[in-house]
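Quick start: read one record
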Amino acid sequence: MPKEIHSSIPVSIPEVRELLLARKRDAEKNDEELTYMQSVALDHANLISKISADIARELVEDLMNTFNISDKGAITLANYLPDTIDEARVLLDPESKTMETEVLEQIVAKIMSVPRLDKDKMEEDENLKEEFFDEPDKEMPEDIPEDLL
């Protein structure tokens, strides 16, 4: 039976990752597992999160307050972290239609200054490799070009 939704608030993908990691820790303490959909969502969030949840919250709040961007627009920017004005303009459409290029430049500069996660040292993801590979001990094929590794 589906659960009833009483309220909802938009959150960024790094925040989803944080919530699902907490849910995973709780489940493991009780000898349970995440549901299939939770596992898929966590895998997705792990793959595309570029910043921590704390930094995402700060960035969203800063974008909303400084540039008067809607919460959904700020969350979209925090999820994708555009590095050009054109990308920011597309992500903020229709809000960006009233923004001057200088404002978009400031938004992109702020986004570019945000520290990114080091995927090799992602906090609290000690089992990340095992989650993404069926056979974590399997050696990589030798015919893969160096620049793809």
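The helical segments are 13-29, 36-48, 53-67, 71-80, 85-92, 101-112, 128-132.
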